[in-house]
Inverse folding.
């Protein structure tokens, strides 16, 4: 191997011999290059000598950074080709673990655009397009497109969450089958129909629990309306109206007057409300009232003839690594991700209610906002 030292103190490998010693492999494998910071913002006019000198210095640093020899294991990359028509990357050769990436169709593994670009950045994928190897810079244009779209925002969120340790997969809406409907779903659908004039979804009506729950609620309603309050039995002792004819001496001890009017009106030191709470009717009402779940309505302008479709869209599902995620039989996700651009406002109470009415969510909602400066903020919404 023939080497020579450049003025920039970097090593150039002679192309006639590509073999390196173990020491040289380790040195080039962990080669680091730090670009100096640009400093404060310049306020001078364009075209000055200081500006030209600064631009030349920045170009020299960039050229030196790109000229650093890099050692990579080409055999550790998977191979895929980009299908422009379907907008997916077809994996031709796998290398390493791919249990959290891609989806299978007819025995072939396909990667979404954000998965392919993420693996490209990690150096785990070699992407080809019409037989030519695609660089990372070309992949940004090929996979995300030249025009501004939601693809770039989705990829930023996907990359950030994946690097944070989450398993990020494409959102799969819950299957709309009558078998997946529970008794609780039927109860809530009937309550929304009575309280908010909402239509009951067809998949709820087709459930075998719907007719049973509907009849039980009607029976309970009739029981509450037409129930007869049983009067308590009179267990008080009879009053003896025979008075003693002998005169009794007056009590020498003075009677203490109660300080408050409330105590003065009560012979036992309790108010009138306290006496009413001991009545049988109040106790019966309290027992019935405790069985109800109070539903607070913020607004009452919901559609009476059809469901209003929410403009929010769930893009990703998040799973935790330590919960044994399996792509073939995945568990319910830990979070559903909604991605907002810088122009979109955060969801209101009505927007969350619409998502709940459409049964779009399968887990707590994680709303992620991407600002114009590409900063990401996430907020967790719990639907109760």
């Amino acid at each position: 191997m023939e080497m020579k030292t450049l003025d920039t103190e970097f090593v150039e490998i002679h192309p006639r011999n590509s073999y390196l010693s173990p020491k040289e492999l380790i040195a080039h494998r962990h080669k680091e290059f730090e670009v100096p910071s640009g400093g404060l913002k310049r306020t001078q006019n364009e075209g000055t000598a200081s500006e030209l000198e600064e631009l030349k210095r920045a170009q020299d640093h960039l050229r030196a950074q790109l000229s650093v020899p890099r050692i990579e294991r080409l055999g550790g990359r998977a191979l895929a080709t980009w299908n422009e028509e379907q907008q997916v990357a077809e994996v031709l050769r796998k290398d390493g673990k791919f249990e959290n990436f891609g989806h299978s169709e007819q025995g072939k593994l396909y990667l979404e655009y954000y998965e392919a670009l993420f693996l490209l950045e990690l150096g785990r994928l070699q992407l080809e397009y019409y037989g030519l190897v695609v660089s990372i810079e070309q992949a940004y244009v090929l996979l995300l497109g030249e025009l501004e779209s939601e693809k770039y925002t989705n990829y930023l969120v996907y990359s950030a969450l994946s690097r944070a340790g989450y398993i990020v997969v494409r959102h799969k809406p819950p299957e709309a089958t009558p078998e997946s409907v529970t008794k609780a779903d039927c109860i809530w659908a009937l309550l929304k129909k009575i309280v908010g004039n909402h239509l009951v979804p067809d998949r709820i009506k087709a459930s075998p629990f719907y007719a049973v729950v509907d009849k039980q609620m009607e029976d309970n309603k009739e029981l509450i309306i037409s129930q007869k309050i049983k009067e308590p039995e009179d267990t008080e002792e009879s009053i003896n109206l025979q008075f003693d004819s002998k005169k009794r001496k007056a009590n020498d001890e003075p009677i203490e007057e109660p300080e408050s009017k409330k105590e003065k009106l009560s012979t036992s030191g309790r108010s009138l409300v306290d006496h009413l709470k001991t009545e049988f009717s109040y106790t019966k009402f309290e027992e019935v009232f405790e069985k109800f779940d109070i539903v607070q309505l913020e607004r009452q302008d919901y559609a009476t003839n059809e469901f209003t479709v929410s403009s929010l869209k769930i893009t990703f599902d998040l799973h935790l690594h330590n919960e044994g995620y399996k792509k073939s039989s995945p568990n319910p996700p830990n979070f559903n991700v909604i991605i907002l651009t810088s122009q979109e406002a955060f969801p209101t109470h009505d927007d969350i209610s619409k998502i709940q009415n459409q049964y779009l969510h399968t887990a707590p909602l994680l709303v992620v906002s991407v600002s114009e400066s590409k900063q990401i903020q996430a907020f967790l919404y719990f639907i109760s």
About this structure: Residues 1-16, 300-307 have pLDDT under 50 and may be disordered. The longest helix spans residues 208-226. The longest strand covers residues 78-83. The domain at 74-147 is CATH 3.40.1170.20 (MutS, DNA mismatch repair protein, domain I).
